[in-house]
Amino acid sequence: MAKKILKFGGTSVGTIERIQHVANIIKKEYDSGSQIIAVVSAMSGKTNELINLSKNIANDFNKRELDVLLSSGEQVTCALLAGALIELKINAKSWLNWQIPILTEGEHSNARIVNMNLDKVNNFLKKGVAVIPGFQGISKNGDITTIGRGGSDATAVAIAKLFNADSCEIYTDVDGVFSTDPNKIPVAKKIEKISFDEMLELSSLGAKVMQSSAVQTAMMYDIPLEVRSTFTDRKGTKIFSQQNIDYTKSVTGVAYSKDDAKITLIGVEDKPGVAANIFEPLNKAQINVDMVIQNISSDQSTTDITFTIKRDVLKKTKEILESNQNIKYKDLTHNDKVAKISIVGAGMVSTPGVTYRMFRGLAEEQINILAISTSEIKLSVIIDEENTLNAVKKLHTIFELN
Ligand code: ADP
Ligand code: ASP
Ligand code: MG
């Protein structure tokens, strides 16, 4: 009997009608003889609504209580879906994080699943469908935790791993993984197959169709995934290891994100140890620096250093740079109206000229590149935020993804 994990995202369970539709999808799979664990997100918009509620109490609402609050979104859909299945005469039952339990480690809002005891669920599967909330867990101390935005994907993959599932299907509001966000660039094309590595890059660089830590776990344990639509019967996108894919194109997809900020330190002394002095206190404060550029100095004694960080730590980063006595510079400028545009493709390794074509294309659109970073299968640039869609469209055309 095949064991299947079916995960349904927020839009898929966004209304009562949609929950009933999801119950019918599950019924079909169940009736064809599979054992089913359904993993659900909160109704679309619910998590944001709860975050906003907490902000009415305090901007930095207590983290423990925030997790208690946010986990309620998934509790609602879990019960509604189990109820809808029962109405279809299917024996169904929901379990919350602490009832299983789903054990997590790490800080509130950003915990990670480390184990779960699936005995109860396993026993129940012989006679019915189990419904489990995504996004939440419980710490060693018994506190409710959440595992990061979009985390229901990670719950589904963790369950697939611990359950030794035969398949893990991610049902969402688009037909699969596209060459870029189909809701922003309508000529985007669905990708039939994509490797874990490429999907991990795309997700980390802004393609929120799959949460990046879920892809990372799937890659680590070689758990194939399928992303498909809740609302159509079309074939989705298969995500698996690279040896199953023939590359005909250099670039597989274009991703973008608008959550970075750029800082430039002007007139930094050009001598050994200065960069370390700048980045060490940032590292201590757990601020992740992404791209770094050091200009060649014109007067041989000073230089400018530009780097990017996440936008939400801009204020904290500036405070550290401005208050640390070991960091000396003439001026500090920042820009938080920037976007990161990335091309991703395992085919890039064997295709010369990808970098040049990307830069030439952006130049043709009069788009200035503010920072660059590369890896074997991706190339990212920072540009002004207002040029985002233009840049994505241009790169999509240049690399023949339309
Ligand atoms: P769910 O609630 O089902 O988890 P998400 O909103 O997290 O769904 O992810 C689906 C959304 O991801 C799509 O509606 C789409 O706008 C966006 N998206 C961004 N990049 C891509 C891409 N490359 N392919 C498909 N969807 C993408
Ligand atoms: N409800 C959570 C969120 O909005 C988790 C998820 O949808 O995957 O981030
Ligand atoms: Mg999601």
- What's the count of strands? 20
The percentage helix is 25-40%
Strand content: 25-35%
Q: Please give the largest β-sheet.
A: 8 strands, mixed
CATH topology of the largest domain: Carbamate kinase
Low-confidence residue ranges: none
Shape by Cα distribution: globular
Give the overall average pLDDT: 95
Q: Can you tell me the CATH class of the largest domain?
A: Alpha Beta
Cofactors and ligands: adenosine-5'-diphosphate, aspartic acid, magnesium ion
| Count of DSSP-assigned helices | 11
- How many domains? 2
| Strand line-up of the largest beta sheet | 3-6-2-1-9-11-12-10
Span of the ends, CA to CA:
40 Å
- Using only C-alpha atoms, the radius of gyration works out to 23 Å
Question: For the record, what is the CATH homologous superfamily label of the largest domain?
Answer: Acetylglutamate kinase-like
Question: Which architecture of the largest domain would the CATH scheme give at its second level?
Answer: 3-Layer(aba) Sandwich
Q: Classify the secondary structure makeup into a structural class.
A: alpha/beta
